[in-house]
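User: These chains co-purify. Model them together.
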Amino acid sequence: KAGVTQTPRYLIKTRGQQVTLSCSPISGHRSVSWYQQTPGQGLQFLFEYFSETQRNKGNFPGRFSGRQFSNSRSEMNVSTLELGDSALYLCASSLDPSGRGTGELFFGEGSRLTVL
Amino acid sequence: GEDVEQSLFLSVREGDSSVINCTYTDSSSTYLYWYKQEPGAGLQLLTYIFSNMDMKQDQRLTVLLNKKDKHLSLRIADTQTGDSAIYFCAESKYNQGGKLIFGQGTELSVKP
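Assistant: Joint model of the two components:
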């Protein structure tokens, strides 16, 4: 069974540009969550999608957005990039249809974004 | 509030047991997790425990949960050099399944 797949693995952008990252969850998983990992702030929750609807949201500015498609694949977008957006962006998937937690949240390898 | 705390470093000798500790503040936590991250990689789910359990064992891994003190620990028996990594503790709350609150991570160094 394939794991969580994230693309691209690495990318370099300049300030002011925008970026789109993609995540394919484990087959059958309908919940997709996104996290940002930086040395200073650690792992921080961005948002969660289930059945194409945003179910939970973290404390990030509106420049960070996401969506989920009918096949459960998800994308996140960051507009007007800032130097501080340089980070590893991790996607996780789970079965959890109720949102109450299933105990199994699986992460992808991440997309490493560098903003110059 | 939401806060998960871990010590930053732990160094052990190969073959010894490692114990990584974590404290959390939110008593409404539903699941508590341990993840492993190797350099340049994503997070690997090691194990998790439901908040109404006290202990869970899975091969070399033992998780202990003290709900009264809001303390979680991960014991790795017979630690190997391949166990060297950063270990993250995380919690989730009821009805917020995909939203995890992570600790800062404990860097485990295993010396031969």
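The interface with chain A takes residues 30-31, 33, 35, 41-45, 48, 50, 88, 90, 92-105 of chain B (CB under 8 Å).
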